[in-house]
Structures are given as C-alpha cells and as structure tokens.
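Input.
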Amino acid sequence: MNVVDEVKERLDVADLVSRHVQLKKSGRYLKGLCPFHSEKTPSFFVFPDTQRWHCFGCNRGGDIYNFVMESSGLDFRTALEELARQAGVPLREQTPQEIKAESEAERLRALLNEAVRYYHALLMNAPQASAARAYLRERGFERETVETFQLGYSLSAWDALRTHLLGKGYTVQEQIKAGMLVERDDGSTFDRFRDRLMIPIHDRRGRTIAFGGRVLQPEQQPKYMNSPQTPLFDKSQVLFGYHLAGRAIREAEAAIIVEGYMDVMIPHQAGYRNVVAPMGTALSEAHLKQLQRLTRRFILALDPDAAGVRGTLQSLETARQTLDRDWDAVFDPRGLIGYEGHLKADIRVITLPDGLDPDELILKDPARWTSLVASSQPIVRFYFQQMLAQQDPNEPKMKSRIVDAMLPLLNDIADSIEREAYAQEIALELGLDPRTLMDRVRAMERAAVVRSQAAVREVAPTARGPSDLEAYVLRVLIHHPELQQRVNELLGQANLAGLTEADFSPRYRLIWSAWTELSEHPELELDDFLPSDMLTLVQDWTAQQLPDMLPAQWERDVVRTILRMRERGLREKLQEAHVTLATAQAEDGPTSTPSIKEGIKQISEELRELQWALAQRPAQA
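Output.
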C-alpha cells in the first residue's frame, strides 16, 4: 500500500469533516450545511462507506485530500503532509539530514509558541504593558480580537525574552536562529523586539513562524519591525491573516488585499474576514498562487498617496503575469487559427478616502467600507484613470502611449462585449475612433497564430482504467514537458479547464505535484518530493521509451486521454449522486431531495459537454 492510500486508510472522512461541519446522520450517510457556500437547506453529504463527500449545491466533492485542500486552500502535497502527520504515516524514509532539519524546525516552532504565550501574558497582565493596552483600546480592539490574534507585548529590557526562553530550555543559538535575538559582532546578543506591541505571524496551517512588532512611542523607529528571514519564515511567501481568512474568502468569493496588520485585524473583528495582507512587501507570485486556490476575485485596497498608487500598479502587473488564463481559438480571414489568453480572474481596486486606512474607515463608517467593496473599480478603469492622471491625453504621442499601455489589459478581458465597451470608453475619452482601437486589440489576439493540424492517430489503448489513463498522461508529460502549455491551449478551445492536480487520483496527484514543483525549482531532485515507491515508478517511466510521433500527434493524443479521464470521473460522480438520491428519497421522502436533483442535473450537463468535446476528437489510426 502506498503512503497516499495508507493515510486514507487510517483517517475517517466523517471525523475529519465533522471538525468543520455539524453533521447529522441520515441512514447510510451524513449531511450538513456546506462549508464552501452559503445555504439554508443541507446539500452537503458525507458517505462513510466510500469515504467520500459531495455538495450538490456547489458541486464540490472528493476524498479527505480534496476536503483539506478546499477548506484550507492547500496544494495537494501540503494537504498530504498535514494528513500524514495526523495519521502518523511517514511520507518516505528520511535521510539523517532531513530528520535533523525537521527536528530543528519543530524545536523552533515550539520556541516561537512559547514566545507567543510569554508576550501575550505580559500584554494581558503586566503593569509595563499599560501603554500597549491603552493603544489597543484607542485603535478599537476588542478583547476577543486580541486573543484570536494572540497579540502580546515585549518588555523594554534588552534580555527579558532571552532570559525567559533560557529558563524554558531554549539555547541562545536557537533563539538567534528563530529570529528572536540579534547577535552583535562580538558574539553578545540582545532581544530583537523591545517595548513593542507583538503580533504573531502564522503560516497557512496556523503555526507561528515569526513576529511583527509595532512601536508604542512616537520617537521609536522603525514603526513596524518584522522577524528576519529564518528557516521558518520567508516574508515573500506569507500573507498575514491567511490561516483565518480561507473559509471567508471562499464564502465571499473574493479576497481583499490590504497593506498592514491593523487593516486585517480590525476588519476581521467587524466581520469582514476575507482580508489578508503581504508582509511589508509588494504582492508576489507566491501570494497570488495561494489566493487563487480560494477565489478568482481579487480586490486591492489602495492607499491614495503616490506610494500607494505605485504599489497597487506593481501588484496589478504581478497579478496579470501570475494568474491563470483561459485560452480561446481565434481565426483570421486566411483560415489560420490562433489562441488568445484571457485572465481567469476579476481584479478590482478600492480607492480609500484620503487619510483613512481600512481599519480606521471600518471603525468610523462600516457601511461606507461595504459600499466601497461593492463598487470597487475594475482593473481596466483604474489603470486608465491613472494613465490619464500621469500623461497629457491631448498630446498625440501621449495618446499613443496610453493606448499601448491599455491594450494588454483589454486583451485580458474574456467577454468580447465587455472588452468592446471598455475600448469605446477609452476611445471616447481620448477622442479616437473606437474601431481603430478594436482593430489594435484584435491584432494582438492573433499574435500566436498557428496552422490547424491534421487529425491525430490514437496511441493510448482504449480499454485501460482511469489509473492507467492518468499514468499515461503523466508518463508522456515527463518525457515531453514542453507539451503541457499546448495541451492546455487545446483544452481551452473546447471551453474546458487546463490540466490540474484535480484531474488525478490521490496517488498520481502526488506525482503531478512533484513534477510541477520540480519544473519551478530545477535545483531540487525528484526524491525531495516523492516517497520511495512512487519514485521508483517515475524512474521506470523515465527509462521506458515512448513511440516516435510528431508533437501535434502527442498533443491531441494527450488531450483525448485527459477527456476520457474526466468522462470516467463524471460517470462515477453521477452514479454516486443517483445512489444518494435513491437513499434520500427512501429515508427522508421526496421533498428532501431538490438539491441532489439539481446536482445531478449539473453533473449531467458537464458530462454532455465533455462527451461533445470527445466527439470532436474521434480516435484515428
């Protein structure tokens, strides 16, 4: 038994789900309100017999891995690591170096947790923390929020934390490594944080990895100080508040990105919990990849000063380069076909009133915050307004420069009617003919034109099961990694999503995850990601030769195999739904099943669309 299956064998889906959902037993299954969308009538079902779950309201479902990924916004490997830890299953035999590194990491996490307890106790009880408590009251913090975020206070003494942690058995070197002590050139040390409001920083699993410290005296500098980079903390990878915001982001179907700690904590206190903040850095690719697991809608809360505008523009450009895209076929008069990529995201901007941060606005006028979020500007309109403010639109050269800057954003818009409406708005403001601007947009759309390819012969045996189909796709991509982008483009022609980890069963999902990680980090090795049995399997695939075919033939063959994988998965999901419907009607009566029937209708529609796509790609010799 491989580790993925062993973890599933040891953990029960009902136990796992019940930590997040209040489940009620109903015959052979359990049901409750879905944690991933708002509903009043339960449409979320857990099936202990098959160790699976499904919501017939939002049509999400799967096994324990899918649930953890959906509920916590984790990728598959991180979800596997977390569940393996709970199940007591080692992912693979660790080297002595890895065992030592993990032991050191656990030790540092324990040290930081002790620092959290120490700082929090000081804030709540110490006379020296009176100024910190007064500051929190002035900023509108309630006691529950202080406890939720485990806020604390660091004494002004140079060695208070060091002495405390030494008493708990943590060495000076461990404290330096955790970022809590600063080492002088002569080898002596002092507490990094002194006389500051202490704000613990957590990773996606809610584990303490660092601290932020806010000054209490105006003469102190800097105003905010973060822990340095440590084995646990890389600020370019961390979003403050993410561990508390995941479910709220899913429910609101939007992530609001703000600038600071207070701008996360006060909105959370006021019930706006879908808010996160980068750690004093610009929005990074790593930040966006975390968030797009939860939503496709991103709202940036903008500081109205010049620095805030520059930061927002930089974040918008990062988002455009990072977020996933849909690919559509486009044709030109010569019969050539190309592909245009449109953002699979809705990026918007909130411009805050002068002099007010999000936390201040929410405390002063929460209704206005709600209104600003609801009326947030689309990226195209915000960017255009900034261009108008920075350039003279009456100068012909400036008009051309503005148009050149706007074209990529217009091309990002998937809906052609929306795209043309924005183009007309821009043209009207600049005094241009809208047709001229649309011609420029269409010219960009045809930039990647390629000639249509001949039909592909089928080389993957048709009698194989889902696992063999998955293995075949992975094996081909491992031999020909350059195919992946083109395969996703071909799937996009049929209005289908590109290949992701969700297309694979847990065992092969781990191989997919490892392969994609390796493509982003070529300095690593495959055995850094895979347990020994899976590593052997991939090595066998690598050693086996594939048939000699043209790239276009491989592309179409892999696409067809992916479609067959998805078709079988939908057939299994549909069969499971019909069994659930029959059981529910027998035990609860026909009036209790509308959400299940609606779910069956959605699955059936997906299956019809997929079968239509398959029909367009007949197997050929």
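Residues 551-588 form the longest helix (38 residues).
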